[in-house]
Amino acid sequence: MKANGKTGDYRQRTSKMAWIFVTPAVILLSVFTIFPMIASLIMGFWDVDIFLAGAKFIGFGNFKEALRDDRFLNSIWVTIKFTLIEVPTQMLTGLLLAALITRNSISNKLFRGIYFMPIICSATAVGIMWRMFLNSQIGLFTHFLEQFGLRNLNFLNSTTLTFYVIVFMSVWKTFGISTIILVSAMQNVSADLYEAADLDGCSKVKQFFAITLPLIKPTVVFVLMTRLIGSLQVFDLIFTTTGGGPNFTTESMVTYIYTRAFSTSTRLGYASALSEFLFALILVITVILYGKMYMKENT
Amino acid sequence: MLKSKSVQIYNRFLRGLVFLFLTAVALGILIPVIWMILCAFKPQTQIIGYPPRFFPESFTLENFTSVFKRIKLAGYLRNSVIYALGTTIPSLFVNSLAGYAFARMEFKGKNVLFILTLATMMIPFQVIMVPLFLGVYNLGLYDTYAGLILPKIASAVSIFMMRAAFAPLPVELEEAARIDGVSEFGIYWRIMLPQVKPALITLAILGINNAWNDLLWPLLVTSSTQMRTLTNGLALFVGENTIQYGASFAGAFISIIPMLFVYLFGQKYFVQGTATTGLK
Lengths: 299, 280
Fold this sequence. Notes:
The complex is a heterodimer of chains A (299) and B (280).
Chain A: H1 4-43, E1 46-47, E2 56-57, H2 61-68, H3 70-100, H4 106-120, H5 123-133, H6 140-146, H7 162-187, H8 191-199, H9 204-215, H10 217-232, H11 236-241, H12 253-263, H13 268-298
Antiparallel strand pairs in A: 1-2
Helix pairs in contact in A: 3-7, 3-10, 3-12, 4-7, 7-10, 10-13, 12-13
Chain B: H1 2-40, H2 44-48, H3 62-70, H4 73-104, H5 110-120, H6 125-138, H7 145-149, H8 156-166, H9 171-179, H10 184-192, H11 197-213, H12 216-221, H13 230-240, H14 245-277
Helix pairs in contact in B: 1-14, 3-14, 4-8, 4-11, 4-13, 9-10, 11-14, 13-14
């Protein structure tokens, strides 16, 4: 206890140093994340353009307008439909592939390496590649389908087909993430459990559902959550392939917000209000999923 | 005995089927990528010639010279390098410093700050991009490197990753250094930081990849051709010149080469980082 004064002094010194250590990060996060978040909540109630001149408070005007904006409502529908198809497809693909390549053999490592490759490529490169591969004149795939009598398929300019092409491209580009994360979760499941199940004559498929799946559930929920949030913000692949067309059938919420704020007009207040809808959607889904997980853990 | 043999054959058959399936998925990834790379070396006549072929009949580099001439690809490349390194190098320092303080130091307000940092993880970039743009514009940073780089340095995910890396290190390390009279910063910089090299490499690789492939922020905050990065410069070029097939192939190929190399040498770190952060 006699060293109390000294440690107190030392404590104070490190406390001050700790503050200096966190300050750069705290300042940057405040200025470039927290402050814009607060600003976006305020901006939704204003009519603002880039120059801030003539900014006008209009109450719920932007929000009311959004609910009557057919193009915005359409973009919500496109985003939700995209998420509802893309995420389950990707999760099932990821689970299946992860289960098949869990073992650390040379060929499995090679497969993992290949499956992960699209993730490191930019959406621009992937977009260009698929635009060309599916191009109705020069595309290799379109030509391949012609051999089977499937002609005049306009993959990137069809009001029915193009949406699903975007879904496919998105799964193609990102399923490696779910696969890799699930593989590492499955590798952490104790081998003893499988050995015991083998002795009981339990089939591999049954083992997957009875042992693997329940044990990796937290990881599945984690992947599900990040993929859901990611899907709701889909923009890059759409921007580099269709730009939202044809006839707005692939225009997601972020694509429309981008258009309103930066492309055909600069209505930043309105775009902020639209962003709030996106934020609300993401928040609701996150809360529901967390809530479900929490309740399950407590029963 | 007989039965077990038929079971064996059945199992081998199943394994073969699985292998075929896995190979088919792999080909589904490789074929379009390799086709794109091969097309980058084809003369325009072969690209548009009917029927389209997989392998080129002759090789040419004219697409590469054309893409450098037609669009300022060299400038885009330079900007992408500046953006990637300009965000990653300071981010390693800033985020590891904060992660270190959160993991190993006691200070007033630690919990509040920690929760605040946690909360920023919940804020999607797409939701704040409009006010962020407005702020950067009115700070006079529009179309500058500072405007491009500054908002992307601090990241809650990285702070947490670094915190997790620092937390398990033995306390004897810092105590010994403290007795030797090493300053607090010296302990972080010379003693602790070298212990978390794998986490730093993971962070660096993910950071470089994120910035290199980032489309949205550079698209918003740059406007002149001198400031465009590779992703958005290329996307805008292809959007406006739909028939410049050869140049588009070459540009897309050039844009993925650096990341392919990073992936080749740092696959382990890519996978680790993805498993902990979930990526985007």
